[in-house]
Write a structure and sequence with these properties.
The protein is mainly α and 461 residues long. The protein is 53% helix and 5% strand. The longest helix is centred in the middle third of the chain and has 35 residues.
Length: 461
């Protein structure tokens, strides 16, 4: 899911006094009168101290200090998110804009980020030859039927299993059912994060991406729902803001603030919210699959619009335009992982900016995202050796050295990411992990740069 951190807590200041402990203060009320000047130094000192998070690592050793800076709620798609009812809680954050974007990027009608190559010339050869090779409808068919649809089918299967596991936990809360529900959540993350390289089409235009995976999540917004008097029905939860449902709402309810929620801490109200949110999630995951295979809201299957590019498609005027969508999707997720998911948290040394911080599984997200880019380029379906017509094959036909370079950079990025000690929620600010995190980030962005500068010009008219 693409998002940024441009939002703010509306006229509020969160003063953090520990992991997950905060006081919401009205900013206007903090102005000190003359009689309060003597207290100013004390207040500022206390605030600075409370903005530093010092906790224990999973090995029991104190980790180096990270800045625990609170984040506003997410919210995807143009402008501030607005509650659909007056009692839905916080205001949410600014609308997600999709990572940093490429140089001179503009938004497309499908919500994808458009990257313009720094040079309009391909790396080698004649651009007309390259375009002719990319005018291959089999690439679109194999990409859709061999990667997109199977991945969404797996997501739908895992979301069904997650809903069943949560229902079992709610019906009979114990350690075994709680662990099973948590494992089911982690299992559902794998196909979803593995789909991020093709989060175009209905995922963007129909809002399924935001409904499933809006982030960052602000626990204050979730507390507002829990503290309201509204019945936590499926219909009610489905109408909540995107940062009050989806993966990370379920994650917060299941795992707690730092993967440390105990069985006895679950309230009846939390169980109701968890069950409803998971039911809504399962329904959305299935709608996403249906949008590609059968069509929703009176629209034809998006598979047809994609595969029939240039022939019987209003979405893609040419086959090359659809092929470019694949390249843009790869660029989008590499940019997001390098510049946002890893980059923002690393630069600010703030673990609260990590996507799956509640379950301490952000590093797994990054790895699945990188695999998503690899699958999209190599035309390889997850967990199988099946390969169809691929970008890799077409690039190799134009420039074998370039294809070899990209494959090597993918391996380098994968190896560098695997070397990052986890959980990254604990290691983000440690001197031992910092060079490895930086190396992984640089490897991912190097791969992004190669594809943007050398592959994208081959497919663009």
């Amino acid at each position: 899911m693409r998002n940024t951190y441009g939002g703010s807590v509306q006229n509020k200041l969160k003063i953090w006094s520990g992991v997950g402990t905060y006081v919401l203060a009205n900013v206007g009320a903090i102005a000190l009168s003359n009689t309060d000047v003597a207290k100013a130094d004390t207040f500022l000192s206390a605030f600075k101290e409370s903005s530093v998070l010092i906790s224990q690592s999973s090995q029991g050793n104190p980790r180096e200090a990270c800045k625990a800076v609170p984040v506003s709620g997410g919210g995807e798609g143009g402008g501030e998110s607005t509650p659909t009812t007056p009692t839905q809680g916080g205001e949410g954050g600014e609308g997600g804009e999709g990572g940093e974007g490429g140089e001179g990027s503009t938004g497309s009608s499908s919500g994808s980020t458009i990257y313009k190559p720094q040079s309009s010339q391909p790396s080698v050869g004649n651009n007309n030859i390259a375009l002719a090779k990319f005018n291959n409808r089999q690439l679109l068919k194999d990409f859709t039927d061999g990667l997109v649809v199977p991945t969404y089918q797996t997501l739908a299967e895992k979301s069904k299993q997650l809903s069943a596991a949560v229902n079992a936990f709610v019906s009979k809360p114990n350690r075994a059912t709680l662990q099973a529900a948590r494992q089911a959540w982690l299992a559902a993350r794998i196909p979803w994060e593995g789909s991020e390289a093709f989060a175009f089409g209905p995922a963007a235009s129909l809002g399924y991406d935001a409904d499933l995976d809006d982030w960052p999540v602000n626990e204050a917004d979730l507390s507002a729902v829990l503290n309201s008097q509204n019945p936590l029905t499926v219909d009610y939860v489905s109408q909540l803001q995107t940062n009050q449902k989806g993966f990370h709402t379920i994650e917060f309810l299941l795992f707690g603030l730092n993967n440390d929620k105990q069985l006895q801490q679950f309230t009846q109200r939390e169980l109701q919210y968890l069950q409803a949110a998971t039911t809504v999630f399962d329904r959305t995951a299935n709608q996403l699959l249906t949008s590609w295979t059968k069509g929703v809201n009176g629209n034809p299957p998006y598979r047809d619009a994609f595969v029939n590019a240039g022939s019987d498609s209003t979405a893609y005027p040419t086959v090359q335009a659809a092929a470019e969508e694949i390249v843009q999707g790869i660029l989008g997720i590499l940019d997001e992982v390098g510049n946002v998911k890893i980059g923002t948290a690393f630069e600010q040394q703030n673990p609260f900016l990590l996507e799956s911080r509640f379950s301490n599984s952000s590093l797994s997200d990054f790895q699945a995202n990188l695999r998503s880019a690899e699958f999209a380029y190599l035309g390889q379906a997850p967990d199988t050796k099946t390969r169809g017509k691929s970008l890799s094959e077409i690039v190799a036909a134009v420039d074998p050295a370039l294809d070899s370079k990209i494959r090597q950079q993918m391996q380098t990025a994968s190896t560098a990411l695997a070397a990052v000690p986890g959980p990254i929620e604990d290691t983000l600010c440690t001197s031992k992990a910092k060079p490895k995190i930086q190396a992984a980030r640089e490897a991912i962005l190097t791969l992004h740069s190669t594809i943007e500068k050398q592959v994208l010009p081959l497919v663009q008219n």
